[in-house]
């Protein structure tokens, strides 16, 4: 008799435990109780949002001074074209394989060809609606002047700009700029033929 009572109590306890555990799970896609507010779905903050408690009432905050995004490498030659020309070495120098040139061509035609021409001819020869309206015509990237530049000099001009040309560092990711340099060198070789 005592065994039957112990077994019955064990079965009842196991049944209650299963019932208790099954009642704690979520129903559908909603939790039973949200203990910490805004943990399941955080409110999105938009840059244009008005925030009465923030400085200048801006929704987005300015990053703390001296911080840098993960993976960001500051460009050390921002104002020194001579040092960039001398010290920057093209890790893809002479690499004219199809993969390198296709990536370089993609970024060149998207960002550079509008002013410098699809063949790098520049100025009036570029036959671009943009360069036609410019008072100071963009130079040919296949000119002797640009051919005389080092790859580091060309990389520097793409990164920080020169004269009336603005910087393209935000348009052409750092890992692809050398491929653009190689594509310009490819255009120079094509022009020489």
From TrEMBL:
Pfam families: Cytochrome_CBB3. Gene3D superfamilies: Cytochrome c-like domain. Keywords: Heme, Iron, Metal-binding. It comes from the Bacteria. InterPro entries: Cyt_c-like_dom (IPR009056), Cyt_c-like_dom_sf (IPR036909). The keyword Iron applies. Residues 99-188 form the Cytochrome c domain. One of its GO terms (molecular function) is metal ion binding. SUPFAM superfamilies: Cytochrome c. This is Cytochrome c domain-containing protein. It comes from Bdellovibrio bacteriovorus (strain ATCC 15356 / DSM 50701 / NCIMB 9529 / HD100). The lineage of its organism: Bacteria, Pseudomonadati, Bdellovibrionota, Bdellovibrionia, Bdellovibrionales.
